[in-house]
Amino acid sequence: MAAALQMCLLAIDDDPATLELIQAALESPELQVRSATDPKEGLALAWRYRPEVVIVDLMMPGMSGLEVLDAINERLPQTDVVLLTGNDSAQSAVEAIQRGATDYLVKPVSLKELRKKIRGTLEEADRRHRAALAEQEAAAAHTFQGMIGRSVAMTDVFARIRRVAPHFRTALIHGETGTGKELVARALHTLSPVAQGPFVVCNCGAIAESLFEREMFGHVKGAFTGADSDSPGFFEAAGGGTLVLDEIGELPLAMQPKFLRAVQYQEFQQVGSPAKRSVDVRIVCVTNRDLRERMGEGAFREDLFYRLSMVEITLPPLYERIEDLPLLARHFLKRFAAEFQKQVEDISPRALAALVRRRWSGNVRELENVIGSAVMLCDGRALDEVDLPPGPVREPANATPLTFSEGLEPLTEVERRYARLAVERCGGNKARAAATLGVSRATLYKLLAPVAEDASPG
Q: Which of 157, 263, 326, 336 is such that its CA lies 20 to 30 A from the CA of 420?
């Protein structure tokens, strides 16, 4: 086969003649073949060269082929393992398949069968590699002002930012914690006519109510005990640029009329001064709270809300844009791999499936932390499910209890039929079907295994 990059195959067998046969049959400019007669030496080569395929003998002194298989599956989950067995070890071959081996060959090895199976395995590895590169290119193509997304919800957000950024005077950004609201605020500023001006962020929830006016508008010398000099506030500091007010829902009610006037007329008074000061500033308000609910509680003025919400942008939670998760996960993986100097290049299908099932109450920020932790712990070239820190699983929306008396099939039977369909759609290629389903090959083989006749749902 022809491949864009040279691939590596590792053969581990205590019989040197078998290794010579494998090397002579398979080595080519596109495929580098390495070998070892000792399984521990073979594993050391695997950790060093990270081969696409490992061929390993089932019966070896010191360490069995199944033990080698388990070690590779744990550390290099993207590596395909093909087992060499004798005619009398068919049951062990089946066990190896159930434990995650890609395929097996029976000794004495047929050169035709060897080339056929390894060619197919390498083509599948090449397809996965190209798919990973395509995902990386997709991430670059779907990046907007530091935000990543190809879902309809996020492309709508990007389009709205582009439209309003050149014109807005006030904007209100809603979204759950960790959805990237400050990135939206930064994008509005960057694409506005005041992009060269200051970008000032004020966290309203971190300011004591008694200090709010002086922090927002500043004070003059002598305004209160200890005021030894004039001091500008956030409004003045953001003049000619953008002022971002995080947690705007925490703005004290007594402060809201003065704040409304400052926003509406672009003027304010410093504490201790009767003079009005003019300012040219764009206002972006950010909140994870429902301001309409706050209005109903009497904690937020209607006139201020309607003044601030001339432009509203709502960020969807991660669980509503789950199709963006692979792009985001690979983006964070690349960043943390460089930061931690780790050679982690990809995420295994079962790890991605586990990520998709999570609840993500912390949204993109939580995903960033999860990937950072996993990269730090990962020893292989691909993140696997075992590298991920534990987390809550998302419950299906509006789930209701179901019973078999309602005429439904048991879930296991539905999974079996779906697995058979996936294999059929993938032309019989079980490795590709497992990757498509987001499960390990061992799980796929369990689903394909025949069920005893007397089995019945409990």
A: 326
Pull the structure tokens for residue 357: 């099932």
* Residue 221, both tokens: 């010398």
Q: Which residue, among 248, 237, 252, 236, has the nearest Cα to 170 in the 3D structure?
A: 248
Cα–Cα distance between 371 and 320 in angstroms, integer?
A: 19
Instruction: Say if strands 231-232 and 218-219 run parallel, antiparallel, or are unpaired.
Output: antiparallel
For 85-123, give one letter per residue: b (16+ CB within 10 A) or e.
Answer: beeebeebbeebbebbbbbbbbbebeeeebeebbebbbe
CA distance 130 to 209: 56
In 145-236, the DSSP E strands lie at: 147-148, 170-174, 199-203, 218-219, 231-232
Length of the chain: 458
For the record, the structure tokens of 175 come out as 């979204």
Q: Do domains 7-140 and 152-314 have the same CATH topology?
A: yes
pLDDT of the chain, 458 residues: tens digit per residue: 334 467 899 999 999 999 999 998 998 888 999 999 999 999 999 988 889 899 999 889 889 999 999 898 878 877 889 988 876 566 776 777 778 888 888 888 888 889 988 988 888 888 877 776 776 676 667 889 999 998 999 999 999 999 999 999 999 999 999 999 999 999 999 999 999 999 999 999 888 888 888 889 987 876 677 767 778 889 999 999 999 999 999 999 989 999 999 999 999 888 887 888 889 999 999 999 999 999 999 999 999 999 999 999 999 999 999 989 988 998 999 999 999 999 888 888 788 888 999 999 999 999 999 999 999 988 877 888 889 998 888 765 554 444 444 444 555 666 677 777 777 766 677 766 776 666 767 677 777 776 544 444 43
Pick the CATH number of 319-387 from 3.30.1490.190, 1.10.8.60, 3.30.2290.10, 1.10.3720.10: 1.10.8.60
The domain covering 404-448 belongs, at the CATH homologous superfamily level, to Homeodomain-like (1.10.10.60)
Kindly report the pTM of this predicted structure.
0.66
Q: Name the token pair of 372.
A: 């950072």
Write the CATH number of the domain with boundaries 7-140: 3.40.50.2300
Instruction: Give burial (CB, 10 Å; 0-12/13-18/19+) of 61.
Output: exposed
